[in-house]
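The records we work with from here on pair a chain with its fold. A complete example follows; check for yourself that the lines match position by position.
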Amino acid sequence: MTQNWNSFWIAAAMTISAVGVASVAGLIWKKKKRSLAKVGTVSKLHFFPVKGLKSIEVNKGKCTELGFEVNGLLDRSFMLMDSEGVLLSQKKAPTLALLTVRIDDKTLTISTPSGEKLKVEIKDSVSADDKIVPCRIVNDLTKAVDCGDEAASFFQSYLNKPGVRLLRYFPKMIEREYSPTGTKRPFDLELRKENPHLAFQNYTAFHLVSKPSVDDLNSKLQDKEVSDLNFRPNIVVDGCKPFEEDSWNYIKFSSGSLLCNLLLFKSVRQRALIAVS
C-alpha cells in the first residue's frame, strides 16, 4: 500500500478512550473491500512521559501526528542522556524500570523505590534562557532542552552514573538528522526518516500490541510470563486473534477515524521481537 507518512493520521486530534469509559469507546475496525468490520476493543492505554521509565495508565488521550498526547504533553517528551550525549535506556540502566511517574497539572513527579522525589515543571514552550543541547537516539542526531542541574543530580545519584542529564522535547523544535550508521535493516531507517518531528520515540509515533498476541507468546514461554508492558505499547487491543493486528491496513476508533499505514504494524511486530523501549 502506498501511503504518504506525513498524511498518515486522518483524525489527528480525535480522542480515543479505553473500554468502559464511554459506551462505544475504543472500537477498532479493519478495512476490507472498502467496508469496515469490527475486529476488537481497546483494553488499555499507556502513556510514557519519560522514555525508559514506568508508564501511566490513562482512560483517554489524543492521537496526533507526533504521538499520543495526554493533557497537552506528548508521549516520551522526556528522556535521559548519558555522559556521551546518547539516550540512556533500561538496557544500560535497568533500575530505571523501578522509577514511578506522576503528573499533577503542570508538574512531573518522579519517585524512587526509597521515596526520594524529583519535581519537574512541565513548560508549555521553550524559553529564552533554556539550554538546548545535542543528543543522539538510535544513532540519529537531534536537540533538546536540558532540564537543569537539580534533575541531573537526582538521576546521577540514583543511577550512580556521572554526567546523566534529563532532557525535554518540544514539538517540532528541530528535525532529526538521520544516520544509517548501525542500521542493520533498511526498513528501520525508512521509518525514522519519515517521522522527522517525533519526540524521543525510536521509530514511530504510536506503538500498538494485542493482548492475544502477548498471551500466545506466554503459552510458549517455559520459565516466566511477560506482560504487555514488556513491549511498552501505547495501545493494547483485545478481542482479536493472536498477531491479527499485523494484517490491519486501517483502524478506526469509535470516537473518530485513524488511518494507519501497514508499515506501522510491521514496525510494531519487529520492535516487539527486539524489545525496544
